[in-house]
Amino acid sequence: MHSEELDQLALQIKTWARELGFARAAIGGVDLGHAEASLQDWLAAGFHGEMDYMARHGLKRARPTELVPETRSLISVFMPYRVKDAADAKAILADGERAYISRYALGRDYHKVLRNRLQTLADRLAARIGPFGYRVFVDSAPVLEVEVARQAGQGWRGKHTLLLNRDHGSFFFLGELFTDLPLPADPPLPQEHCGSCSRCMDACPTSAIVAPYRVDARRCISYLTIELAGAIPDEFRPLIGNRVYGCDDCQLACPWNRFAVTTDEPDFAVRHGLDDVKLVELFGWSEEDFKSRMAGSAIYRIGYPRWLRNIAVGLGNAPMTPAVLAALQARRDAPDLMVRAHVRWALAQHEL
């Protein structure tokens, strides 16, 4: 294809992406070598915790052509997930009897939603130009998603390490389409826009943002409540508060999120009242309840024991009420040893 045809094709891809519900699509090159040193330093510091796959793939994350040979262009897309009618996040965090669930997980699993849309984008492209090489990614392989997006001009990396966009803040999902097409690349933004602001760092309950642009996952509540398989370290339990799945504090504190748009995507609509629900109610779910209600949700992946573990910590931090104590007492001898240990810790917080 001639350069003019590739220019037109790039414009068409961006139009199709918007039609498929993505806020924006941009195109970047494959050279991410500038990100290798910081990735190596992060891994060497052990900041990935028990996420062994991060170390196992190593620098492959910064080398797209090792992941998918013949790749020549990286198409980056993002889709907002902030739900218009969800309960106010800060109000839920302030109510110790309620469970806070990261806003991205209130609806259906974003992996499936974005992956299907990206596949449709690839199908449209194939229908236009014929067969071509590509692979779809949505937080599912060793890909430096934020760096791919930053290099394509989608935004800049905030001090909390998430991507920030002037018109959308950070409440969005990222996805990528690696392709062997030599598409024209979009330039990165000429400058970042965080300046001297440190609100995200100051807001982190566990001080996980140990330096600008550097997060120690071992301290991060999202890691502790989602990725960590075993017991949550005692030192972090009181700091977790009522956050039972993930944490949005750094995003909620970010001034750029006053521009975050809401989504009309039906798949991201709140399910099972998870935006405003009491800890006691969730703790009462049976394993069958969890599996049926969380089917199709990103939360399903952590499994029932971790779900109870997290809620037990929330109940240990909750105001002492008869309902809270009864819920904890009912699971004092839970069959899962990890759940039992966290329940007994929670009871001890109430001096029982």
Automatic annotation (TrEMBL):
<keyword id="KW-0479">Metal-binding</keyword>
<dbReference type="InterPro" id="IPR004453">
    <property type="entry name" value="QueG"/>
</dbReference>
<feature type="binding site">
    <location>
        <begin position="247"/>
        <end position="248"/>
    </location>
    <ligand>
        <name>cob(II)alamin</name>
    </ligand>
</feature>
<feature type="binding site">
    <location>
        <position position="200"/>
    </location>
    <ligand>
        <name>[4Fe-4S] cluster 1</name>
    </ligand>
</feature>
<dbReference type="Pfam" id="PF08331">
    <property type="entry name" value="QueG_DUF1730"/>
</dbReference>
<feature type="binding site">
    <location>
        <position position="139"/>
    </location>
    <ligand>
        <name>cob(II)alamin</name>
    </ligand>
</feature>
<feature type="binding site">
    <location>
        <position position="222"/>
    </location>
    <ligand>
        <name>cob(II)alamin</name>
    </ligand>
</feature>
<keyword id="KW-0560">Oxidoreductase</keyword>
<dbReference type="InterPro" id="IPR013542">
    <property type="entry name" value="QueG_DUF1730"/>
</dbReference>
<dbReference type="GO" id="GO:0052693">
    <property type="term" value="F:epoxyqueuosine reductase activity"/>
</dbReference>
<protein>
    <recommendedName>
        <fullName>Epoxyqueuosine reductase</fullName>
        <ecNumber>1.17.99.6</ecNumber>
    </recommendedName>
</protein>
<feature type="binding site">
    <location>
        <position position="250"/>
    </location>
    <ligand>
        <name>[4Fe-4S] cluster 2</name>
    </ligand>
</feature>
<keyword id="KW-0671">Queuosine biosynthesis</keyword>
<feature type="binding site">
    <location>
        <position position="174"/>
    </location>
    <ligand>
        <name>cob(II)alamin</name>
    </ligand>
</feature>
<feature type="binding site">
    <location>
        <position position="163"/>
    </location>
    <ligand>
        <name>cob(II)alamin</name>
    </ligand>
</feature>
<dbReference type="GO" id="GO:0031419">
    <property type="term" value="F:cobalamin binding"/>
</dbReference>
<dbReference type="InterPro" id="IPR017896">
    <property type="entry name" value="4Fe4S_Fe-S-bd"/>
</dbReference>
<keyword id="KW-0819">tRNA processing</keyword>
<comment type="subunit">
    <text>Monomer.</text>
</comment>
<feature type="binding site">
    <location>
        <position position="204"/>
    </location>
    <ligand>
        <name>[4Fe-4S] cluster 2</name>
    </ligand>
</feature>
<keyword id="KW-0004">4Fe-4S</keyword>
<feature type="domain" description="4Fe-4S ferredoxin-type">
    <location>
        <begin position="185"/>
        <end position="214"/>
    </location>
</feature>
<comment type="function">
    <text>Catalyzes the conversion of epoxyqueuosine (oQ) to queuosine (Q), which is a hypermodified base found in the wobble positions of tRNA(Asp), tRNA(Asn), tRNA(His) and tRNA(Tyr).</text>
</comment>
<feature type="binding site">
    <location>
        <position position="197"/>
    </location>
    <ligand>
        <name>[4Fe-4S] cluster 1</name>
    </ligand>
</feature>
<dbReference type="GO" id="GO:0005737">
    <property type="term" value="C:cytoplasm"/>
</dbReference>
<feature type="binding site">
    <location>
        <position position="254"/>
    </location>
    <ligand>
        <name>[4Fe-4S] cluster 1</name>
    </ligand>
</feature>
<feature type="active site" description="Proton donor">
    <location>
        <position position="139"/>
    </location>
</feature>
<feature type="binding site">
    <location>
        <position position="247"/>
    </location>
    <ligand>
        <name>[4Fe-4S] cluster 2</name>
    </ligand>
</feature>
<keyword id="KW-0963">Cytoplasm</keyword>
<comment type="similarity">
    <text>Belongs to the QueG family.</text>
</comment>
<feature type="binding site">
    <location>
        <position position="194"/>
    </location>
    <ligand>
        <name>[4Fe-4S] cluster 1</name>
    </ligand>
</feature>
<dbReference type="InterPro" id="IPR017900">
    <property type="entry name" value="4Fe4S_Fe_S_CS"/>
</dbReference>
<dbReference type="GO" id="GO:0051539">
    <property type="term" value="F:4 iron, 4 sulfur cluster binding"/>
</dbReference>
<keyword id="KW-0411">Iron-sulfur</keyword>
<keyword id="KW-0846">Cobalamin</keyword>
<dbReference type="GO" id="GO:0046872">
    <property type="term" value="F:metal ion binding"/>
</dbReference>
<feature type="binding site">
    <location>
        <position position="61"/>
    </location>
    <ligand>
        <name>cob(II)alamin</name>
    </ligand>
</feature>
<feature type="binding site">
    <location>
        <position position="220"/>
    </location>
    <ligand>
        <name>[4Fe-4S] cluster 2</name>
    </ligand>
</feature>
<dbReference type="GO" id="GO:0008616">
    <property type="term" value="P:tRNA queuosine(34) biosynthetic process"/>
</dbReference>
<keyword id="KW-0408">Iron</keyword>
<comment type="pathway">
    <text>tRNA modification; tRNA-queuosine biosynthesis.</text>
</comment>
<keyword id="KW-0170">Cobalt</keyword>
